[in-house]
UniProtKB/TrEMBL annotation:
The keyword tRNA processing does not apply. The lineage of its organism: Bacteria, Bacillati, Bacillota, Bacilli, Bacillales. Belongs to the glycosyl hydrolase 1 family. This is Glycoside hydrolase family 1 protein. Gene3D superfamilies: Glycosidases. SUPFAM superfamilies: (Trans)glycosidases.
């Protein structure tokens, strides 16, 4: 075997509650911002497919967990939906939700699949958004109560907890770039949302450590290595600034307990620092994570700013650098994302050298493809060779990082079965398992799923 992986390596996949469960308003669940946004603007979702039309994991989890076994999983990440567990955001816990999540966790464990549980995957309950969402301190308190309820209810069995998935995404998509509800474009408000999310995270970590729950707690960050166009000083400075805004803004506080000073200075100079309350920095500093999840899809390429923005233009991070399209870059045309496998190795070495060699795992990496039905073979399953190649090429670099001492504990592909991808709905398919929307959401293991089983069984390839 050319690429053997360490013993007990986690092989599995990642998914999320809002993207798989369905049963959107069933058994006491109430709206999240996604259900609400879909109710007012269904046309914003690819082919008008909304969050109630996901893969129905809510009813099919037992069969799905058997398919996880068939595809080699020894671990699986999903998220609890706050809007299902505590439908009013605070107060009463929904017993039907407790029963559902208990059953999922127990079924995973009974099948020797370690549950990795995330508490928040872009899914603010609508009633909490009405109170100001992450701009409101009250929502931080409510989130911490929700986190405590999860630790109390499920902490006797779940050993790996995550406070947030990609917390920078709601900051960018909902408060800067007009992509997700509530469609605000305002850097100052985005900075408040980011800071409050980090405080909420740190307070949840603190609550976890004070509880009797088993195991470890961390966060899942999407890291996008930031590469300069050239080795020129100006290009390198631009890449460094992009790195501060898009990676270190979250990575530093959750691992080192403090914001990068250079970023604080930039924001202070522009009078864009959020209000920081007395014990915010203390709680951040006292609660570093045990374990990091790294979602890696693509790098960011940057060059020095060519034309400065007018002084009165409302601030955006892109006022400090330009993006750069590298000649000859390879992209996944369906998603438009660059494919650059070696960047995953750069992340690993950075964590080894600058982040106390923190234990981490690749918590998402995957390839979304449109129109996969055309690759169906005579036996009726999709031959997604491109996905196998994509994973292999990334794993080669993960392997090299491990050989060189990075503390990587596993690899989770995004995702287990084709799922609902927010506003992209079912446009791009990512699964090891196909979900046939035309035929009762039937599941069929793809070639990548069969290969993934061998990969896990052999612990390498
Ligand atoms: C990650 C998210 O950013 O990428 C997932 O954690 C998401 O929720 C995945 O589905 C793939 O991105 P997209 O936008 O193609 O669905």
């Amino acid at each position: 075997m050319d690429y053997p992986f360490p013993e007990k390596f986690w092989w599995g996949s990642a998914a999320s509650g809002p993207q798989t469960e369905g049963a959107a308003l069933m058994d006491g669940r109430k709206q999240s911002i996604w259900d609400y946004w879909y109710s007012i603007e269904p046309e914003s979702f690819h082919n008008g497919v909304g969050p109630e039309q996901t893969s129905d994991f809510y009813h099919r989890f037992k069969d799905d967990i058997q398919l996880m076994k068939e595809t080699g999983h020894n671990s699986f990440r999903t998220s609890i939906q706050w809007s299902r567990l505590i439908p009013d955001g605070t107060g009463q816990v929904n017993e039907k939700a407790v029963d559902f999540y208990n059953q999922v966790i127990d079924e995973l464990l009974a099948n020797d699949i370690e549950p990795f549980i995330n508490l928040y995957h872009f899914d603010m309950p609508m009633c909490m958004q009405e109170k100001g969402g992450w701009e409101s301190r009250e929502v931080i308190d409510a989130y911490v109560q929700y986190a405590k309820a999860c630790f109390r209810l499920f902490g006797d069995r779940v050993k790996y907890w995550f406070t947030f998935n990609e917390p920078i995404v709601p900051v960018e998509a909902s408060y800067l770039y007009n992509l997700h509800y509530p469609h605000i474009v305002d850097f100052k408000r985005a900075a408040v949302v980011a800071h409050h999310t980090i405080v909420a995270h740190a307070r949840a970590v603190e609550a976890f450590k004070e509880s009797n729950a088993l195991g470890q707690i961390g966060i899942i960050l999407n890291l996008t290595p930031s590469y300069p166009r050239s080795e020129d000083k100006e290009d390198r400075a631009a890449a460094h600034i992009a790195d501060l805004f898009f990676n270190r803004s979250f990575l530093d506080p959750v691992t080192k307990g403090e914001y990068p000073l250079e970023l604080v200075d930039i924001l202070a100079e522009k009078e864009l620092l959020p209000i920081v309350e007395a014990d915010d920095l203390e709680v951040i500093s006292n609660n570093p994570i045990d374990l990091l999840g790294v979602n890696y899809y693509q790098p960011r390429r940057v060059k020095a700013k060519e034309n400065p923005e007018p002084d009165n233009a409302p601030f955006m991070p892109e006022h400090l650098f330009d993006s750069y399209i590298m000649p000859g870059r390879r992209i996944n045309p369906h998603r438009g994302w660059e494919i650059a496998e070696e960047a995953v190795y750069d992340i690993m070495i950075d964590l080894r050298d600058h982040y106390r060699n923190i234990p981490f795992f690749i918590s998402e990496n995957g390839m979304g493809v449109e129109g996969e039905e055309k690759f169906r073979n005579e036996e009726g399953y999709i031959e997604d060779e491109y996905r196998i190649e994509f994973v292999k090429e990334h794993l080669k670099w993960v392997h090299k990082g491990i050989q060189e001492g990075a503390n990587c504990l596993g690899y989770h592909i995004w995702t287990f079965m084709d799922n609902w991808s927010w506003a992209n709905a079912y446009k791009n398919r990512y699964g090891l398992v196909e979900v046939d929307l035309k035929n009762g959401r039937n599941r069929t293991v793809k070639k990548s799923g069969k290969w993934y089983k061998l990969l896990a069984e052999n612990n390498g390839f």
